[in-house]
Queue: 3 jobs
Job 1
Amino acid sequence: MRRTVFNEDHEAYRETLRAFIEAEVVPVYDEWFAAGQAPREFYHKLGELGVFGISVEEEFGGAGVDSHKYEAVLQEECARAGVSFGGSGVHVLLGLPYIKMLATGDQKKRWLPKFVSGEEMWALAMTEPGTGSDVAGMKTNAKLSEDGTHYVLNGSKTFITGGVHADRVIVCARTSAPREDDRRFGISLFAVDTKSEGYSIGRKLDKLGLRVSDTAELAFVDVKVPVEDLLGEENKGFGYLGTNLASERWGIAFGAYAQAAAAVRFAQQYVQDRTVFGKTVASFQNTKFELAACQAEVDAAQAVADRALEALDAGELTAAEAASAKLFCTEVAHRVIDRCLQLHGGYGFMNEYPIARLYADNRVNRIYGGTSEVMKSIIAKSMGL
């Protein structure tokens, strides 16, 4: 299918990534899967490759390219190979936008060079055990010390991807009580050093899918956070979080489309090799019809994901458009991956086959970044309903 979203530079990056994945990831991916995380030193390799610095200003060691298209290429190539880069995705997709949007000049000088090199990995801690989609209901709090030099952070977070390896975490915490007319008021963002006294990593969570990305519970007991590590203005954190939700949801939508495309590729290869009753599975009409229907859905999802990507790069992707893209692409991926697993028969249920891992990995797409039900509410509101 003809695409116009990528140019020669993007395709050159694709070739580099594909070779890197084949050499550095595929041979050891089963080990990472068994361990439940990618090794920390792998992120240094990603830093050396330039993956983390594409959209970071040149003065801080990046390439200064203000585009999400290189991230899109990375998602396609990882899905194509049936691998992931561990928890590093949140480093760029969730961590970097807040640094670029909110960090002062001094903060950027302190943080971005290490961000680009992979020496300092970042994560975002928003969700709490009792607050998922209801961000305003968070209990974690940060109180300014009497001498005004630091905040004292207390509370806990859960489902924090990248939380095991993170060196610095953007923690959302209440610095003031909510107002009667605005319960979203009073949330602030802090770039917390994970080596701080009182900061602790709880369980590394045992997930259904995405097993190579480290996801953890975090706890804060009287953690001292210097005032210099406040991101943006105090009490305005909820608004900042909302600003980046569109790009986060685009990332999930595009990743889901890429997974669906990969599932068709895996199934097509399998049915051409597998024989039943003396014929290849690919020769049966049902197989052809199933794969054709899946390909049609993937083509539609690609168009939606590409359109959202162009709008995002142009700074024009609205909350409703991002919600629509996420809803559509994740639902397509759910249907396509399930049908492609069915074509694998019993082997589709075995983790040694990439389709099985893809099936498990895909399920969270309709939950995190806002559930499908939340996406429908956003779309309905934009329709005036």
Note: The longest strand covers residues 150-161.
Job 2
Amino acid sequence: MTKKNRHKIHRPANLSLKRKPAPSRLTMPFFAFMGALLIGAAIFFNFLSPNETQSSIDWSAQGIATRHEYQDIKEDGAFAEQEHESEELPEACAPREPEITRMSDTIKRGDTPSTLLEGHLGLSEIYSLCNESKDFYPLDSLRAGQPWTMIYSNKALIGLEYEIDSNERLVVSLTDSGYEFRREAIPYEMETKSVSGVVESSLFGAVTSAGESEELAIRLGNVFAYDVDFTRDLRTGDSFRVIVEKKFREGKFVGYGQLMAASFTNQGQTYHAYQYTDKKGNTAYYDEKGRPLRKAFLKSPLPFTRISSGYSMSRMHPILKYRRPHQGIDYAAPTGTPISTVADGIIAQVGSNKSQGRFVRVIHSNGYETIYNHMSKFAKASKKGAKVKQGQTIGYVGSTGYATGPHLDFRMRQNGKLINPLKLKTMPADPIASKEMPAFKAAVAAYMEQLEEPVQSASLEQPSTPNP
């Protein structure tokens, strides 16, 4: 066959598609199972947590605006409560209270504001503090033995406290604007108690045997010092009963408050004392009839010592070794024992010489004067011309001058003439005013029954069980 005659042979196109292989019998059941599984999961999650599921759907489908609308709808429900709780400051993030620390100690000899506050305040600040405190209490007068407290906030000094005495304290606050001062009463818990005892050898021993401190013996002795000479008159078997306030601080006994009433039986005679404050604010002790216990003169300038030498017109002098008048009373006592003036008066002389040693002379009313010899030292109040009150300390027992040992040589003059102090009889002060007698009798009635109870010796009072 020649090229010309050659022609292409066209085969008809195969218009039919290639037949796909037949699906497997497991295909349709598989897809049906997966669809059912998805539907079941959706239903399960919708019932398990409908709020969260619905919320997530709504937010994704409707956008932010729809979400705000949904929050408004739910504001009275649980979602609103959760939102309100989220606004509160978590406890862990709350600001802490400042840590307050108190450091207490007692003032020691040589302590000054500068030494105590060094490292906390500058010298100029300490000077300013002391200068401003003078109107309340001078800080340069700190006394050894008194409590002192420094108060810190997170280690920064913010305050000071100083106990002026047993009743008051100075409180200082250090603020950004300066110093703030105030004096305030020291808080105590007070209990009124009845205490009794029987004397065997001394009043001090009787009081301490009753479980009390010597402070109470001194207080009791001062009350009856006008009627009982505790140096000469005390006898075995004498007894006392006292109604007194006892002071406690943080549960610890720290002293006594007011001595409200007392009785003392000396050699068979009983004396009573009732504290009463009149309408003018004057406080004193009176007997059951309203007569004051206070007399013009105390029985003795040293209530708890012995007489070593009495009043005599002819006594062998222990140093000069010849007889001469001894127109005074010698009270033997340890060096440093406080000496009290026996009556109100004015100090006429404070001096020293070869025979009397250090001495003080006091002028009283009605021509009386008293002389106190052989002192070891004078009290601060003992200045010529100074007024002194009955019972005030004017000096301290010593052995200066002609003395073989520590004692007080006490002398008294009336209109310039030496007299025997032990024979002096004085009149009491004015009694309770008649218009105040009803109030006084009511005060007495509150304590009289307790004072009249019989006092038994401590050796006879042996309770089987301790008192609560």
Note: Residues 50-73 form the longest helix (24 residues).
Job 3
Amino acid sequence: MPIIINLDVMMARRKMSLNELSERINLTLSNISNLKTGKAKAIRFSTLDAICKALDCQPGDILEFRE
């Protein structure tokens, strides 16, 4: 899949755990884990918005396109 999700990188930069992010954005641990490991096939804009607010970043910090 050419879209890479760098959620783990941003979480590490902000020193935020999976549990803390889950609580802040009100999303289950399994859903965040799927995003973090790249197993997710889609992401809602509302979820991306909540993640960006919680991690104080831009969508481009989380999503990357690679050929």
Note: The domain at 1-63 is CATH 1.10.260.40 (434 Repressor (Amino-terminal Domain)).
